[in-house]
Amino acid sequence: MAYVDVEKAIKILSQDGIVALPTETVYGLAGSIMSKTAIENIFLTKKRPSFDPLIVHVHSIEQAINYALDWPEIATEICKKFWPGPLTIVVKKNEKVSSVITAGQDTVALRMPNHDLFLTVLKKLNFPLAAPSANFFGKTSPTSAEHVISEFAGKIPVLDGGACKVGIESTIISISEDSIQLLRHGMITKSELKNFTGIDVIDCTKKSKTAGSLENHYQPKTELILIESNLSFNDLKDSYQNHKKATELVIGDNPELAARNLYGKLREIDKHQYDYIYFPLREFHKQENWSAILDRVKKASHFTFCSENGENILKSKNPNA
Ligand code: TXA
Ligand code: MG
Question: How far away, in angstroms, is 154 Cα from ligand 1 center?
Fold first, then answer.
């Protein structure tokens, strides 16, 4: 049952079921937006709190417009440029979208994924698919079919579409007539959006209250320690845990490849018995094309090793920890 083909996926989705589908960003746990049972099952399977809204996936701009109350003109321009692709837009929803999907908000997040199999499935159905990342709430997202199988112990059917090419979740923006707000970092950057639209893009990623914006997210089981760029692994070992078994999170210096490999690396490390993972922050990580990757790495981390008042300290991200 674990692996299914396109026909079977369509059948399951037409009968109130849920299936993990490949996208270019991460695998999604998909269900019909018209099926109360499927939507409830998505939340239950992921152990996802009801306050965290789902993204609605569509096969075209026309289909997206069907679910919006207001569709700003600029939204069409943006979607023509970036869809299918790793960009989700938030607009006012109409009554066709249940408030369970949007966690009670009057807006809906819409995205046309850039994956042939997902689009083939969508085009054969006469409803869009809600699909959060196919992982337990707060944990590392899946970027291959095997990741989904291991996450849910083979209990969720998966359509195998290979390894995800982008590797981290879509950029999310909220669009109104005269402004664009960035709600979640992704590989489509703020500058790209600003250059294309000519409109200022306001960074609201710190203010946004939805779950992707929680401080702890995407977390591996093994503790992840970020090392500030003025310090080294040796400093960490010296002043901290000399005897512990550690491994470095190596994602290289190319942001596209780093994004593609990030979650797979974290999952791979979790299979071994390390006491902790360390990730040395570098000056080049401050460049904008690293913003989404750094956002994920920071949320996935448990501690930062840094200097304060001339002393090297391990700072917990969670003040209650
Ligand atoms: O790349 C992606 O976006 C992947 C693939 C599967 O498409 N999906 C994904 O979904 O990352 P998920 O559920 O892991 O993250 C969805 C996030 C929510 O946590 C929330 O931050 C935001 O989308 N969101 C959804 N609806 C929203 C709304 N109406 N207003 C603001 N944010 C919303
Ligand atoms: Mg997620």
Answer: 24
CA dihedral 74, 79, 80, 84 (to 10 degrees): 180
Rounded Cα–Cα distance for residues 88 and 55 (Å): 8
C-beta 102 within 6 A of ligand 1? yes
In the chain, alpha helices (H): 6-14, 36-46, 61-65, 73-82, 116-124, 145-151, 190-197, 233-239, 255-270, 291-300
Rounded CA-CA distance 222/269 in Å is 8
Is the confidence at residue 319, as pLDDT, over 90?
A: no
Edge-first strand listing for the sheet containing 246-248: 246-248, 276-280, 223-227, 303-308, 311-316
Tell me if 161 CB under 6 Å of ligand 1: no
pTM greater than 0.90 (yes/no): yes
> pLDDT tens digit string along 254-304?
999 999 999 999 999 999 999 999 999 999 999 999 999 999 999 999 999
Q: What is the pLDDT of residues 107-138, one digit of tens each?
A: 999 999 999 999 999 999 999 999 999 999 99
Q: State the Cα–Cα distance between residues 181 and 69, nearest whole angstrom.
A: 18
Longest CA pairwise span in the chain (Å): 62
